[in-house]
Write a structure and sequence with these properties.
Helices cover about 55% and strands about 10% of the residues. By secondary structure, it is of the alpha/beta class. Strand 2 (about 15-20) and strand 3 form a beta hairpin.
């Protein structure tokens, strides 16, 4: 495959910035724009897409259905490549698309999987439904508080609570009950489908204490194409500390960047393993014995968990 056959794509919410063989062009993120981009690139093109599982997901899915080969590009690689070209030092769509097209190859890019795209869509739909259910629950709590009444259930997200509110004569509570019932059914159906179609590689993660099917699915989809090294995954997850030095004083602070979904998962796993996993608890107590605070010891444990996750997925 000649280098000029690679199409670099920098995806945004409303536009696709495409570069191929010295030519740059932007397309709209709709069906007509997708078809125009494929026609412009030609049939033999390989697509290197930055954000194939994010803003570029609809376009990626369109390309896969058309039989095109699509590869995911890590944004960190794009940043490094851009520094190589003096004509693309500044951050812009043209520069990003250009360096993606020029430097992309099968060794540094990961081919996008339809299974992963579909899994990501299901997880996104499930998260949306969970957020909607939480909003309905909070509205019910507010309504009972304004009326000076006591809530009949501590957990309003259960099917029992939804059935109770659906049977009420109050039109507001009845409507909330019907909505909760529908959301519970949608969430349950999505979770069962995710568990049935979980990739075999993601199932390996369940060997770690505290990881079930949904957590494994989130880790698998969020780390897809980000497994270059243990250090890069730790930095991408926001687990690795950031140096904050001045003069002769060398200090580190928490990494407030990175993927916050992964950061939250590794934090919960570190808490769980420090309590219920034999090896995790021993490591946690060892760090505490060294004089580290409980919070710092959990951060050290989270860093070790990143290493274990990397080994399971990479191998």
């Amino acid at each position: 495959m000649k280098k000029e056959d690679w199409v670099g794509v920098d995806c945004h919410k409303e536009t696709l910035a495409c570069y191929k063989n010295g030519n740059f062009k932007e397309f709209k993120t709709n069906q007509k724009g997708y078809e125009s981009a494929v026609k412009w690139a030609g049939n033999n093109a390989k697509w290197a897409v930055e954000g194939a599982y994010c803003f570029g997901r609809p376009f990626t899915f369109f390309l896969i259905r058309r039989g095109c080969k699509v590869y995911e590009i890590n944004p960190l690689l794009t940043k490094n490549w851009r520094k190589v070209l003096s004509t693309a030092n500044s951050k812009n769509d043209f520069g990003d698309a250009k360096v993606i097209s020029m430097f992309a190859n099968e060794n540094n890019a990961h081919e996008v999987s339809v299974q992963t795209v579909e899994l990501k869509e299901k997880l996104t739909a499930r998260n949306f439904s969970v957020k909607q259910r939480s909003k309905i629950s909070n509205s019910i709590k507010m309504l009972y508080s304004q009326r000076g009444k006591e809530l009949p259930f501590n957990d309003l997200t259960t099917q029992k609570a939804a059935k109770y509110f659906s049977s009420q004569e109050d039109i507001i509570l009845k409507g909330f009950g019907h909505t909760l019932t529908a959301l519970n059914a949608a969430i349950k159906e999505l979770e069962e489908d995710i568990k049935r179609n979980l990739p075999e590689k993601a199932k390996k993660l369940m060997n770690l204490t505290g990881i079930k099917e949904l957590t494994a699915a989130f880790i698998y989809t969020e780390t897809k194409s980000k497994l270059y090294s243990r250090e890069s995954l730790a930095n991408y997850s926001g687990v690795a500390p950031v140096e904050n030095s001045s003069g002769k004083s060398t200090k580190h602070r928490n990494n407030r960047g990175g993927n916050r979904i992964l950061n939250s998962i590794f934090f919960r796993l570190s808490v769980h393993q420090s309590r219920f996993d034999e090896k995790g608890k021993a490591y946690y107590e060892k760090k505490c014995a060294e004089g580290k605070s409980k919070r710092h010891a959990r951060k050290c444990l989270a860093r070790q968990l990143v290493r274990l996750v990397f080994n399971l997925l990479k191998n």
